[in-house]
Amino acid sequence: xxxxxxxxxxxxxxxxxxxxxxxxxxxxxxxxxxxxxxxxxxxxxxxxxxxxxxxxxxxxxxxxxxxxxxxxxxxxxxxxxxxxxxxxxxxxxxxxxxxxxxxxxxxxxxxxxxxxxxxxxxxxxxxxxxxxxxxxxxxxxxxxxxxxxxxxxxxxxxxxxxxxxxxxxxxxxxxxxxxxxxxxxxxxxxxxxxxxxxxx
Length: 200
Known about the structure:
Blueprint: H1 5-12, H2 16-23, H3 31-43, E1 60-66, H4 72-86, E2 91-98, H5 104-111, E3 120-123, H6 129-140, E4 144-148, E5 159-161, H7 165-180
Parallel strand pairs: 1-2, 1-3, 3-4, 4-5
Helix pairs in contact: 1-2, 1-3, 2-3
């Protein structure tokens, strides 16, 4: 069984927060603690060895399909994807497609403009039968697929990048319940679209 962040924390006598900061290269950990964490992670087999890392034979051409519109979160995400991809030597190109909406037909229209060179696609999409068919066709064409922010679990994706929105929703409900302090009342819930799995 693969080691966890908690295993690494126990091994080196540090908090899981410190281990997380080190493993994700965030500030807030001393050089000594960084070294302790990395040594423990290596000893426990948390980090892959060079013979386990499979690098592509040539730089990848990546394309992302995001419903940016006027959504500041989506615009920020697109900016960070482009910025990070520009710094990676294994990325030959990165193209962001601004979807005209969240419908499967908007995704279909955008996918028709997919570059013939594309090796990988990242997508924020609604979990819908037509969406799953579109994504399945991409994978069948040899393109690696990653779903972002809101998952499409029935699609043949390589990975999902995002939080567990159901756990986040339960946590939000728990906190709202505590804020009420035993009182009863009505709550208003606002979501962008209930079509996203992450907004269920």
